[in-house]
Automatic annotation (TrEMBL):
UniProt organism field: Devosia sediminis
Stored Gene3D superfamilies: MazG-like
Family: Belongs to the nucleoside triphosphate pyrophosphohydrolase family.
EC number: 3.6.1.8
Catalytic activity: ATP + H2O = AMP + diphosphate + H(+)
Enzyme class: hydrolase
Superkingdom to which the source organism belongs: Bacteria
Domain NTP pyrophosphohydrolase MazG-like: 30-103, 174-234
CDD domains per the UniProt record, alphabetical: NTP-PPase_MazG_Cterm, NTP-PPase_MazG_Nterm
Gene name linked to the record: mazG
Keywords: Hydrolase
Official protein name in the record: Nucleoside triphosphate pyrophosphohydrolase
InterPro entries: MazG-like_dom, NTP-PPase_MazG-like_C, NTP-PPase_MazG-like_N, NTP_PyrPHydrolase_MazG
């Protein structure tokens, strides 16, 4: 078995790994549930490489991500559900169907019009899918994935609701809602009811996700950036502790905060 640029070789390798006669014992033990977290992790590693603009890593991480649908499709083939060809057929059908302005005789007046058309087709597809399954008329929120990170899912839920007019009229109104939710956190803390504190902090985070959407900001990306900034600044604090020959745990808040303000001021200059 030799490496190849042809995706068919990747499919062959995956089939060999899953072959009961001479395949990999670990790969043979896996099922859809046991590898699903790898699919999510690989997507995050792709996003990380993009954010770092490391295109060598991006090439590698895209390969790791590509392996995931091949892996799932191989297991589905073994179970008689579908194979990778069915997966490719489904996505090519979807892309052609959702781009009538490219593959049909419809015109799109810019990116916004194309996106609106895409969303309208998705709504029709959800209704048709529910009808085929004999289900009640679907909610506009039905296919927002449960497994999304909570902050990203909150943004998607509010975005979907906004499509039918359930939205704050402007950014000022959303900011007021954030302040209202923060006040309710304070009230819950004063009550001593921990369950109420958790509920109100959840409402506050949801309102902040909505604020980000209304401001045109991806809340998940914004929080990742904030995490990266905190990590970089705290590394500076640790380095300053080493320079002064003290352990961070015994430095005291005043000294640590002083180091923090050094890097914070440097960032702003």
């Amino acid at each position: 078995m030799q490496p190849s640029r042809d995706i068919s070789r990747l499919i062959e390798i995956m089939a060999a790994l899953r072959n009961p006669d001479g395949g990999c014992p670990w790969d043979l033990e896996q099922d859809f549930r046991s590898i699903r977290h790898y699919t999510i992790e690989e997507a995050y590693e792709v996003a990380d490489a993009i954010e770092r603009e490391d295109f060598g890593d991006l090439r590698e991480e895209l390969g790791d991500l590509l392996l995931q649908p091949i892996y799932h499709a191989q297991m589905a083939k073994e179970a008689g559900h579908f194979d990778i060809g069915d997966v490719v057929l489904a996505i090519t059908e979807k892309l052609i169907r959702r781009h009538p302005h490219v593959f049909g005789d419809v015109t799109a007046d810019g990116a916004s019009d194309a996106q609106d058309r895409w969303e309208a087709i998705k709504v029709a597809e959800r209704a048709a899918k529910a009808e085929r399954k004999g289900e009640a008329e679907p909610s506009i929120l039905d296919d927002v994935p449960q497994v999304l990170p909570a902050l990203a899912r909150a943004e998607k839920l509010t975005k979907r609701a906004a499509k039918v007019g359930f939205d704050w009229p402007d950014l000022v109104s959303v900011r007021a809602k954030v302040v209202e939710e923060l006040d309710e956190v304070v009230e819950a803390e004063a009550s001593g009811n921990q369950a109420a504190v958790q509920e109100e902090i959840g409402d506050l985070l949801f309102a902040v996700a909505n604020l980000a959407r209304k401001a045109g900001v991806d809340p998940e990306a914004a929080l990742r950036d904030a995490n990266a900034k905190f990590t970089r600044r705290f590394h500076y604090v640790e380095a300053r502790c080493r320079e002064d020959g003290i352990e961070p745990a015994s430095a005291g808040l005043q000294r640590l905060d002083g180091y923090w303000n050094e890097i914070r001021s440097r960032d702003k200059s």
